[in-house]
Design a protein that fits this description.
6-stranded mixed beta sheet; 5-stranded mixed beta sheet; homodimer; alpha/beta
Chain lengths: 289, 289
């Protein structure tokens, strides 16, 4: 029997961990049944199928499951916000025993996160006092400033989403061969280009012109596009930073670490179980675990 | 009978003018049969149907009809390039009497234009000597420096294409009500936002956050998006410029003029018949007209 069941339920994915009373992961399950895939909105059945065998332990969930399109809306907590403020604002799921949803965090100037606050809490517990910059790369990358364990503020960049749109839907798409793979040199060239003048809108078109004029191999286009976008993200949000804590998959964090190095920024990478650690910390703070 | 038939044949549109021996427009025709719509690539039939009654006058065409996906590829002329260099590189269409295609212009660092060089030639003839900055807003906006009638260099921004992708395909799309119209204040706010730090990738996500937090009316989102993108285009490519010649439709040029004013940049707008004037000048230079 679990002490607490931790669930990270996003738009496109579902991950759950069975956590022991000291927070260690005893078991885990994941699948592609993000909330976007659940047209019938039968969240209770999905949850029961995924983690029913671990019940009746309490369940704490984070991510888009707490959004307006999710199961129960868990209103945003305004930054600055730390473990205490987040744990005090859990939204109980009605009609089901001991299931709660972690709120997202908002801030002014307007920005929002939902799910990443839990990963940040998970990592912040390992960082010690002082001021730290965290980057959570993804469809909507988050850059957060954590001070003494509290989220002081954060900013989002639409990097991953723009990469997907450009790669699949833009005038660049038909230029890209199907077998285009990872090209480290092209990625670095993209990062370098992002640091030159002209702006992102101009640099994006340069990929097309480079291919048409035979200066960029079509198979290298996606890697240069990735470097260009990540480079612009860093230039916009972290150019003055000296050290960044990356939270995410090894592959994506590796790309970001290489791009950050081009800006002279050091990077430390934290694993993907940050959400599980954060959910455990919140559950303890809330008295659930 | 026309002296020369001028055709601007792009990806999505076709425009043709019957020009008298002094270059004045005597008649015109246009339609949505851009080269992208012609899956059977039967360009000869489309041309004959559109302008056959004006023949046997010579036909001079510009635009994507001269690209690899077009009728006959007219290789790029490298900038700096003026009327003489462009007129010397016309590509004759084989198998049909007296039909030519104007080449595009390329440059290094890699950039390309096809069709806009002709509009620039058309406007340049009215500007007199000296250095001028021209902006041709659109799906792929062109910024060109013209000196003594010659295209010295140019840069492209993917502004219009990104607007379309963001409005229709991104996470912003479902936020936008169907009846969203033109909102001048939101457009101005977008231009102003583009001048703040953070970068375009961050500012784009701010539109979503603004709506979610009730700080931006959903119906105002497209106008703010437009201002944001045009503002970033100007910040990237024209922040040091003091005066710009806009070439394009009154609606789009009007938006750009308002955005330029926020940067303290004066704008003069030139009409949409720039392509006809440019084609006439090139035809004369080439001895066709």
């Amino acid at each position: 029997v679990a002490e607490v069941i931790a669930v990270d339920w996003g738009l496109t994915s579902f991950r759950a961990w069975r956590l022991a009373s000291d927070g260690t992961v005893q078991d885990s399950v994941s699948g592609p049944f993000g909330i976007r895939a659940l047209a019938d909105r039968d969240f209770a059945t999905v949850l029961d199928r995924a983690v029913g065998v671990w019940r009746p332990a309490p369940v704490l969930m984070c991510g888009m499951i707490g959004s307006r399109q999710g199961w129960v809306e868990a209103p945003y907590v305004a930054a600055p916000a730390g473990l205490a403020a987040i744990a005090a604002a859990l939204a109980p799921v009605p009609g089901i025993d001991r299931v709660w949803i972690v709120p997202g965090v908002s801030q002014d100037p307007p920005d929002v996160m939902r799910g990443e606050e839990t990963q940040i809490v998970g990592v912040a517990g390992t960082l010690g006092p002082g001021r730290h910059v965290l980057c959570l790369p993804g469809t909507h990358s988050k850059w957060a400033v954590v001070e003494d364990g509290q989220v002081e503020g954060f900013r989002t960049a639409m990097t991953g989403e723009l990469f997907g749109l450009m790669r699949a839907q833009s005038i660049l798409a038909p230029l890209i061969p199907e077998d285009a793979g990872d090209d480290a040199a092209a990625f670095e060239a993209g990062v370098a280009r992002a640091r030159e003048e002209g702006g992102l809108l101009h640099h994006l078109f340069g990929l097309r012109a480079g291919v048409l004029l035979g200066r960029l191999a079509p198979a290298a286009l996606p890697s240069m596009l990735s470097g260009l976008l990540i480079g612009h993200e860093i230039a916009g949000l972290a150019a003055e930073t000296r050290e960044v804590h990356l939270v995410g998959s090894a592959a994506l964090a590796g790309h970001y670490a290489r791009a950050l190095a081009r800006f002279g920024i050091a990077a430390t990478t934290h694993g993907e179980e940050a959400a599980a650690h954060g959910l455990f910390a919140i559950a303890r703070e809330a008295g659930i675990a």
